[in-house]
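Training component of the fellowship. As part of building independent skills, the fellow (R.M.) carried out the full modelling exercise for a liganded target. The chosen ligand was fe (ii) ion. The inputs are recorded below so that the supervisory panel can assess the work.
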Amino acid sequence: MGAGLLANGAVVRAEERGRLGAGDTAILRFLAAAELIEADLWTQYAELGGIGNNLPVEVNPNQQMNPYQAALSNLDTDGPQYITSNTLDEVSHANFINAYLESRGAEPVNFSEFETLKGSTATGSSGKLRLTNLMNLNVDTSWFVRYRSATNPDLGATFPQAITLNGVTAIPRTDADFNGASNANLGKANDHIQAIANVAAFHFGAIEQGGSSLYATMSQKVSDPEVLQITLGIGGDEIAHFLEWVDFAGNGVQQPVAPFKDAISGLSFPDFFNNPPLQPPTLVQPSLIFPVPCEFISPNLPHVSIIRPLTDKFSGAVASAASLIASGLFTGQSRKFLNTLQIMAFEADAAIRLAL
Ligand SMILES: [Fe+2]
Ligand SMILES: [Fe+2]
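Fellow's submitted model of the complex:
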């Protein structure tokens, strides 16, 4: 039996509680893959913009943060702490799901052979090879509009971009990216690094809304109650992350940070309160941070505040993998990696709920 290859303790546990079914295994393996991807990208954010050795800004406003940390602190004075915390959470998600798979006699996911991408060389980066690329992103910002809209993608609604962010970096690539035109509103940051931090803010939201919908969609296919406990438990943490980044991104498109323009990248961030890019203005109102009630299940039912999308078509594993790929997150990755991820996604979506 393949189980003989696993550590003794894992074999015993798998025999006691039974092996995972094929569908639940495929779901958890895709989720482990998604968590390894999240852990890799968040680690890059944490190395450059996390709290590091710094105290929170409100404890020591005079410390030497790098300009990226300063720019992130402009979006929330606790921003660097939140970035470090989100990173620790993702690492814990990946480690837990992999260990759980093993404990139920299933194979964990290991992507170390795909950690081949050179990351940032800016001061603070560990320089290790990465699974993901944060330096050439097409950030889908439609989530910012979707969650302020009363319509639902699962019922056919589509949403424009809140702001166009194509081919952009979300982290300082080299130390040169720490420098830019000074701006009295941005304190120790500057227009260039603030634009990079604002890209990151919209990317944080894009990643975590995707995780929120992915877990809620996968939960509908799970068979084993213990696996459902895992998908609901970890999925809830993804939603907790998402909420902070909704607020965070909104702070990049209102005073005192916005409006500003970075002459180096050409990116502009308007003040969404006073110069909303969409009508009605509520579609981009930065202070609407909770999911606005929308149609759900049927247009004949009352509007309700929910996570959305919740269907395979938009937030299943295949859809999630496709949107990560389209975002440029794997620019430079091998065809083998993309194929591996897509096959895992296909297998997860093929799972159906069984009565155990
Ligand atoms: Fe996660
Ligand atoms: Fe997450």
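The panel noted the following from the submitted structure. The pocket of fe (ii) ion (ligand 1) is lined by residues 35, 38, 90, 93, 211, 238 (CB under 6 Å). The beta strands are 137-139, 165-168, 260-261, 268-269.
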